[in-house]
Amino acid sequence: MPTLKPGDAAPEFELLDQNGKKVGLSGFRGRKLLVYFYPKADTPGCTKQACSVRDHRADLNDLGIAVVGISPDAPEKQKKFDEKYNLSFPLLSDLDHTVADAYGVWRDKSMYGRVFKGITRSSFLVDERGKITHVWYNVKPQDTVPKAQEALTG
Description:
This protein has helices spanning 44-55, 57-62, 75-85, 98-103, 144-153; strands at residues 14-16, 22-24, 32-37, 65-71, 91-93, 106-111, 114-119, 122-126, 132-137. It has 154 residues and is an alpha/beta fold. The protein has a single domain, classed as Glutaredoxin (3-Layer(aba) Sandwich), CATH 3.40.30.10. The protein has a 5-stranded mixed β-sheet with strand order 5-4-3-8-9. Strands 1-2 form a two-stranded antiparallel sheet. The longest helix is centred in the N-terminal third of the chain and has 12 residues, at 44-55.
């Protein structure tokens, strides 16, 4: 399983968003992009994370950062999540976890003694040329936005 680091090329992706539109990494060339992975739409931690992104969109835009969230949820579930919390940014569906594998976030997890595969909450800051500048594996929901802001404002 890959572990990405600053300086690596961000793995390409093209996934459906909550509206059924294809969204790819290449569409963000020329702009910084915060790519964050979350385990499951409309769960407490994922909601906290997504609402933090929503609430800081103006701040992120001021820093020149676009945002996409990626989970293994179907586009229809992403749409309900978006509408329920008025998120208004791309939530991408990685049903077969191909992109999660490429970013090294599809890992063994355990709950109540049961081991299973799933998303490890992580985020990546990608520069205008598609290179990763910052990596945060196992990021806490409330830290996704502050870490990205700190990375650019120092």
